Amino acid sequence: MDIVGSRKVTFAISIIIILAGIIAMPINASMGRGILDFDVEFIGGTVMEINIGQEFDINNDIKPIVVDITGDDSPQITRVDNQAVAIKTKSIDTKTKRELFNALKEKYQLDESKDLLNSEDVSATIGTEMQVKALQALFLASILMLIYITFRFKDWKLGLSAVVPLIHDVLVVIAVYSILRIPVNNSFIAVILTILGYSINNTIVIFDRIRENRKSVKKRDKEELVNKSVNQSITRSINTTVTTLLTITVLYFLGVPSIKEFSLPLIIGLIAGTYSSIFIASPVWYMLNSKSTKTVKN
After folding, report:
1. pLDDT at residue 126 above 60?
2. What is the value of pTM for the model shown?
3. What whole-number distance in Å separates Cα of residue 83 and Cα of residue 109?
């Protein structure tokens, strides 16, 4: 497989996906839904957990009541178990909470002392703190990976080439959250860090092969070196990812909504991470070396 020769096509695929996510953000914002579907942990709001005590349909039974009483057009409503529901909305006062519970109480004959499982406000301050910590975690992870790879391979270009796919993976996952309107909550941070770990692992395997093949490939033939190294590693990378995807896919189809919110972007992110380690990382290293070679010649 000509990895280097097809880099324009593979780069274009990534750019299209990322641009689709970026375009979706202002469209969502113009519809009053926000650029991303931020959970209350990030922007603040009200969380209520109520035991309905019988079967119910979220979209037909619960959501219309929540929207009508709270005025929130896009509340996050999920099942806690078969007969309980978690309702997350923008911040509402005590009176509105009471009205919401009473409406559900009247519809399902609830008992406040038993069926109102939880009712609390999550402040915007907590949400801001979580956003800052998430960004700090991503930045620190990228810097440490850059330093580690640079020292391990004694080549800053390999270090930089490993970080570029990580940025790619984060942008692809954010695009997925934007397009599919997956709630951005605590699991978002876990998804991103997990994807970065898998992606960098696959990238290091390929870079290890590049280091080994340098001895057998002509020094100036970087294209042959990259293609040979990636083709020797591609089966291993794909098999490792497929094995992990099988487990996560089962979780997605059999898990509760909160598990699905975690597993779906993780599935897409793992695919993106494998794609970037094969089709982004090594071609970027090739381009950096080609540029430096031209500079030396000039």
Report:
1. no
2. 0.80
3. 13
